Amino acid sequence: MLAKAYFNIRNTGFVVASMFVFILLIEYVSLIFFDDLGDGFLKLLEGQLLVIYLFAIFFAIRLVGLWHLFTMFLLTFGLFLLSRPILDVLGYQYSYIVESLVQVDVPMLIRIEIVMVLSCSILIFQICFLYFVRFEDVNFSLPSLKTDQNLISLGKFLMISSSPLVLFRSYQQIMLIKTLGYGALFSGEVQQADMNPIVRLSITFFSIGYYFIIGGKPSKKKFIGYSFFYLGLSMLNLIIGSRMGIVLNVLFILWYLHAVYGQKFKFKKIFLYFTVAIICLQVVALKRISSEVDMGIGEMIFSFFSFQGISMITLAIYIQYGSTFVAHTVPYVLDPLYYGINVIFNPWLLRAGQSVETIAVRSDFGHHLTYSMNENYYLSGFSLGTSFISELYEFGIFGVLFGCVLLTWLITYFSRKVKVSKYLLIFSMLIVSHVLSTPRGNFFYNTYILFRLILMMIIIYYIYILFKKIKNQLSTNGQKVLD
């Protein structure tokens, strides 16, 4: 892309976003003077939300392409937070989705508030991205990083050596879920099951091995091979009904292929594959609820989007019932950062799962929302989850806007620096997966998991280097003796 075209697109994006900001201000003022606005006004806002979202996607693709992290984030944002408002404005119903937790009748004014909050969020994302992105970001590749054979060799060893235990651990989990039910994954029953600590650590070693290979920047062919190996074992999660991790793994692989090797993807093929994936994932989700699935393909696709859009409901519930939630000690958004300290004083948290004791010491939004609305549902291991928008809304619209600015800056900073930083590339899977899951997850990453992972990676890497030096020294001494 030429510099002139880049700046023209960027400036046009600013103008369009500014126009919608002005329109939203007018609509907000109208809400102050007219409190009897009904379904027609909501439909107008939902249609406007769809237009704002499509413009944001359009400018992101035009500037940095479909597989830039920011564009991919916008897509998951739309899936998890905008699906239901967009389905509503299109006239589709989603009442066939199995209801859970509690019956929630969201008042009209709260529906309007949610749509306006989401519209403001997208506009802030677009404006900040246009401001933070640079011309050099348009050429998204990694020409300056070289292959690190040490990381690749170490990663290969870790993946191969730990894979039998990973298979065994997956088998144990499948048997436990078959006996206890899916909710046991989150209620703490699986964590409390008697498993050998080496077996429990196997999945961590397996993942670390893959992270090292990622950071080593292998050839494209080898990366695809290692990724298929990694995905193959991850697919076992489908058996127990866990879909999110697999989807994030696939999205990361697509991002990496484009970012590192400049891989181009044909839109028609990707669209076809994702349509098939949507149907398969929805079948898995419905099978988890009922043994029989009686839906047409079209109905199943719309069911999928409605099902994924449940994250928006967490914001609706918080706005309507937040004042009745159980008390929490730190802001919801900071709970993942505080968790590392929390575990030091409450080590039992590592195996507690969803329990009354967990609620007493943690400030996780998803835990508190589900427990406050339906205690039995929560203690059975089920949850509506969370969303970074819902967490940030504890501080009102300004909290959401600040979070959107910070997240956009982090995305653009990472996308630029990963081109030249081996360390960022090693952790790229964690970063990309977390960014893409924030619309349905926490704003911050869990500090305990992160610090433990970093510590283990450092220890493993330096033990490997030490053994390699000893081996080389012995080889050198042996050669001298022969000479």
TrEMBL record:
It comes from Pedobacter steynii. The keyword Acyltransferase does not apply. This is O-antigen polysaccharide polymerase Wzy. The chain crosses the membrane at residues 12-34, 40-61, 73-94, 114-133, 197-216, 228-258, 270-289, 301-321, 392-413, 420-437, 449-467. Keywords: Membrane, Transmembrane, Transmembrane helix. The keyword Transmembrane applies. It comes from the Bacteria.
